[in-house]
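User: You have something folded?
Assistant:
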Amino acid sequence: MTGNRSTTGLTLYAPLYQAAMKGDWEKADEFFKSHPGAINVRITKEMDTVLHIAAGAKHTKFVEEVVKSMTGTDLTLRNKYNNTALCYAAASGVTKIAEMMVSKNRNLPMMRNNRGVTPLYIAALFGHKDMVWYLYSVTSDEYLTRDDYIGLLIATISTDLFGKK
C-alpha cells in the first residue's frame, strides 16, 4: 500500500517536475498557489525537490524564483544521495545558480553528499572551471581535508582544468 501512496504523490507533483525541467516558472507558480508548501516537497523517487530539478536543468530564472521563496534552511534539503541542490548546480556548471543559493546560505558549499564529496569536488569532476573557482572561493579552507585537496588535484588534471587560463 505504501508504494501506491508514494506513486500517487509523485503523480500529483508531475506537473511541477515538468515545469522545473522546462523552466516554466508561470506553471510552477500556479502549482505553488494551489499547493502551498510544495516548494519543499520531494517530487521524485530520488527525493529531489523542485530546486534540485531546476538547478540540474540549468534554469537560472526559475531557480531565482524558487530561491526567493525558500529560507536558507530550505536550501539544505537533501535527496536520497544526500545531495543538496547546490550539488546539482555544481554539476550543471551554471555559476550564477550556485551564487544565488550560497548568498542565502553560506554553509551549503561545506555540505557533503553520501560519498563524502563537496560541491567543489563535483564541479571539478565535471570540468566546470568557473564553478570550481567560485566554489573554492566560498568553501572554508579548514573544512577541506588533505584527501579533498588530493581529490581536487586529480579531478582538475583529469578534466584538463589544471593550469588552464
